[in-house]
Amino acid sequence: MQDCHAAGDRLSPGVLLGHGSRSMTLAPAALALMAVGACVGFAPAAARADDLQDAQSLYHSGKYADCIRVAAERIEERSWQESWRHLKIRAEFETGRYADAVATLEAALERFPSSITLHLLGRKVFLFGGRTEQAEKMLAEIDTMADQSRWRYTNSPDRIALGRFFLLRGADAKEVLEVFYDRVAKALPDYAETYLATGELALQKHDYALAAEAFARAAKLTPDDPAGHLGLARAYASSQPQQADQALARAFELNPNHADGLLMSADKLIDAEHYQEAAEVLNKVFAVNAEDPMAHAYQAVLAHLQGDPAAEETSRRAALKHWSTNPAVDHLIGRKLSQDYRFSEGAAYQRRALKFDPKYLPAKMQLSQDLLRLGEEAQGWRLADEVYEQDGYNVVAHNLVTLQQTLAEFKTLEADGFVLRMDAREADVYGLSALELLRRAKRELCAKYEVELPRPVVVEIFPQRKDFAVRTFGMPGAMGFLGVCFGNVITANSPASQGENPSNWRAVLWHEFCHVVTLQKTNNKMPRWLSEGISVYEEKQKDPSWGQSMTAGYRRMVLGGELTPVSRLSGAFLRPASPLHLQFAYFESAMVVEYLVETHGFQTVRDILNDLSTGTAIDTVLERHVGPLELLDAQFDQFARKRAEQLAPDADWQPPDLQPEEGLTAIADWTKQHPTNLAGLQLLAGRLLQEKKWQEAKKPLKKLLELHPEDLGADNAYLRLAAVHRELGETKAERSVLEKLAQRDSDALDVYLRLIELCKESKDWEAVAVAAERVLAVDPLLRAAHRELARAAEALHDPGRAIPSYRALLRMDPVNSTACVPARRAARMSKRKSPIMMHSCGSACQASQILQIAAGSGFTGASSRQTTGSSSSPRRDSSASVVGRLLRVTIPRAQPRAASVSRKACTPGNVVARRAPIRSCSSKIAQQRRASSGRIAASASSSGGEPSMPISPRIWSKSSALSTSVPSRSKITPRIAIGRPAWLVGQRACRLCFVRLFQIGIA
Ligand SMILES: [Zn+2]
User: Distance, CA 5 to ligand 1 centroid (Å)?
Assistant: First the structure.
């Protein structure tokens, strides 16, 4: 997401890109220019080259005054070299001496009236000299010169200058790259300016790979020029922060006062909410150039974030002092505000930028994204289209336009202030469940935080990670994010996109909706740590197995003094030292909220949020409500330490003085002497399991559970003890252990599945239903879980729980056989394009819908009878049996009136048949086989007409693995018994938004 914040606002090395006045492709004249330039090369070799190089070194190292002095002397000595003029103008520009730069330029133009490079420099110099017409004239003259004297401009500097000129004119970036930059690079591979120009262009278009490659080459060719290193830092900023830091550090070694480098540092500090340090960095820029427009723009950002509108306006005016309609100023201010979640304010700034220059594409692109994040989608998409039309190389615009087509195929569910968009197949399976959860979250959290939501909240759930990333960030990638909230818009990855180990989607949605509440309460003016802290805290309030709990790792960090002071906590999210540190930032933030609630009362949290909504800085607000920050830090430290010490308080946490290769007897002897040592007990239990001494392993495992029942780590004692009981055939004991674990862990899919199996054996249908519901909270697309829930609920005579799962099965496993043709026809006839409106219909309505399908498919009587067979049948449920079961559980309550329920009354919920694709039984099995070998089944139905539902391989592979029932012991045993990565089983790193799985190491 790092943009090149100040690109083009300096004269070194390049000139503003993308500031085109119109979309254009390269004219034949431009192409002819290249044809003439077959002999690309340097301008004539310079006399006193060493002298010029020395002066350039002065410029590169930031000794601008010396550079100006030397250049002036050479010009005075009537040096014929144009380069001295360039150098003097650039150095004067860097130090804010715009009037001097204009004077130097005008004198130079008299001497070199047909220099394209000078004209290009001149455009910017005249703009900052307040002479807009003259600036435009510079471009017009380049146009004429390039057209009339094309033979003249064949050397490399002119080629690069011409490339930049055509970009300013709105030429196609790819063409410029190919026709100008690439050809110069081929003819003169060691000319660094080519790579700087290429890198700038690539950065502007978010093509970071190309930018990194080009800047690396420039840095290698001219290692003493900070421009290449800084470009590299920008190119790496969003993907490889450590390499970005190294490159930036190298730029500062060469020039400690490099303005663009300093601005990049300030940018990062603002992101980390370290406003004071950011202001200090800006002061360094002002020490070199008190007029620097971008530094003033950043100062306006700081003033806004610190709630000082007067200072904000003063800084903005200062930024526009010399070039009063510079669109880059408002664009930068708005972009930074948007990055701080102030999307409305950010959008207003982009509109101001577009007022200055309606064709300024960076502002248009940013405004498009702001509007999409604000939920003002129609205009947002329109702007994305506009940008793409004018700039086909704009990666973000291209991605958004493509995504728009995908979104058009989503299904929309609306109810009670929510607009939920999902993949149609997923919406059919758990869309209503998701809506119900959101409604409950709204009811509870809005009341608790005294918030009213004026507009419908938009929630979009994506089955493809890349689509989620594009909708959220404009670019693919960003692996590992589960959900993001912008205030009124939530985007989330669906369980289908999360691989084999999805997180609990209910916890994720609850977390994200809590962001909606707190962001709207504060008008998006809250520090990140507080927003995340409250969301994690509220997860835990809703369900103790959600959110984050103290772990051995967190205990070590808290007691080891690794807590981040509250005033710097937001920064802990930005550049965590490790994945564990990122998780710890969430955990610590939630603990701060817990501390505030326990020590000062929940009303204090509400008061803090109320004050933040006025724009007051967080430090001021905290001091007002909880006292001096130093005191808060000290007291919170005590609170956290106490919490850490309360984790397994009777246990000995010391590492054992045992060698890894120690024998069983030695380990057993050691644990006898240290009976509460956790690591020793774990070692002993592990060794006993290794040697299959199941009975002996029980004792240390039970002791571990007694000492540290909250340990949900990879090798936790619950999993190990359950494995022991299983080996010994002690089913009841195994179930008891797993149930304790299931209550504590909200993502333990394998554990829930095993519980279903165990509870089924004892016909404990309530327990089967509970375990199946736990599975569905993690993976709602697992048909085995729906089937078990439906059957258990049926056994419990609980149609309210059975119906949704049977419906889900119907939608995942469509009505089959040739007898379905009438149903298919009926389904087609009932298709509507309007969004499905959620409604709460009773059994009568449900029965009516089912009867309609069943009547159409001819299943009403026969299938009902057919489905009375044993649920342990090795064959998968046919859809016919599902229809029958649905009827069976529905009709007892609804039968008397079912047939007479009006079609109109049932319409809103009549989604069963609407999208159900129809496929013959045999074709379904064949497809299942194909899909289980990793291929997507997407063929049309054999009877023609309606296309088949493209089935996600993931859905199929899971269901086929569990095709007859829940997993067999042989399948599940190793999954439970072997240690899975800690974050998968116990630490639940991936439940939270912004947690990067790739950092954790699975990607
Ligand atoms: Zn969050």
Answer: 26
CB 298 within 8 A of CB 270: yes
The predicted model gives 670-675 an average pLDDT of 93
| Ligand 1 centroid to residue 267 C-alpha, Å | 22
The closest of 567, 574, 625 to 596, measured between CA atoms, is: 625
What pLDDT, on a 0 to 100 scale, did the predictor assign at position 885? 52
Residue 439 C-alpha to ligand 1 middle, in angstroms?
A: 19
CA 499 – ligand 1 centroid, Å = 21
CA distances from residue 196 to 1, 44, 51, 88, 661 in whole angstroms, order as listed: 21, 22, 23, 20, 57
Dihedral sign from CA coordinates of 87, 92, 95, 96: negative
Decide if 336 contacts 267 (C-beta within 8 A).
Answer: yes
Q: State mean pLDDT over 148-165.
A: 84
Q: What is the pLDDT of residues 243-299, one digit of tens each?
A: 999 999 999 999 998 999 999 999 999 988 889 999 999 999 999 999 999 999 999
Q: Which is nearest to 919 in space by CA: 909, 931, 907?
A: 931
Share of the chain above pLDDT 70, in %: 75
Q: Determine the distance separating the centroid of ligand 1 and the alpha carbon of 511, expressed in angstroms.
A: 6
Give distance in angstroms: CA of 239 to centre of ligand 1. Answer: 21
Burial (CB count <10 Å: 0-12, 13-18, 19+), residue 132: middle
Distance 513 CA to ligand 1 centre (A): 9
Integer Cα distance of 204 and 231 in angstroms: 11
Nearest to 434, CA basis, from 417, 459, 455, 457: 459
Q: In angstroms, what is the span from residue 993 Cα to ligand 1's centroid?
A: 4
Distance 609 CA to ligand 1 centre (A): 17
CA of 335 to the centre of ligand 1 (A): 21
The count of other CB atoms within 10 Å of the CB of residue 439 is 16
CA of 529 to the centre of ligand 1 (A): 9
> Distance from the CA of 631 to the center of ligand 1, in angstroms?
27
Distance 992 CA to ligand 1 centre (A): 6
Q: What is the tens place of the pLDDT at every residue in 453-509? A: 999 999 999 998 889 988 888 887 766 678 899 999 999 999 888 777 778 999 999
φ and ψ of 952, to 5 deg: -65, 130
The strand pair at 489-493 and 483-485 is best described as antiparallel
Q: Mean pLDDT over residues 885-892, rounded?
A: 45
Compute the mean pLDDT over every residue in the chain, rounded to the nearest whole number: 78
Report the 10 Å Cβ neighbour count for 629: 16
Distance 530 CA to ligand 1 centre (A): 10
490 Cα–ligand 1 center, Å: 11
For every residue of 382-423, DSSP letters joined together read HHHHHHHHH-TT-HHHHHHHHHHHHHTTSEEEEETTEEEEE-
Distance 271 CA to ligand 1 centre (A): 16
Give me the half-sphere count of Cα atoms (radius 13 Å) on the Cβ side of residue 954.
16
Most confident by average pLDDT, 83-87, 588-592, 654-658: 588-592
Q: Rounded to 5 degrees, what angle do the CA atoms 485, 486, 490 make?
A: 45
**Ligand 1 midpoint to CA 341 (Å):** 13
Ligand 1: centre distance to CA 484 (Å) = 7
Percent of the chain scoring above 90 in pLDDT: 55
At residue 567, the pLDDT reads 83
Predicted confidence at residue 10, as pLDDT, reads 52
In this prediction the pTM is: 0.74
Phi, psi of 318 (to 5 degrees): -65, -35
Separation of CA 1001 from chain center = 17
| 3-state secondary structure at position 272 | coil
Cis before 13? omega within 30? yes
Residue 538 alpha carbon to ligand 1 centre in Å: 11
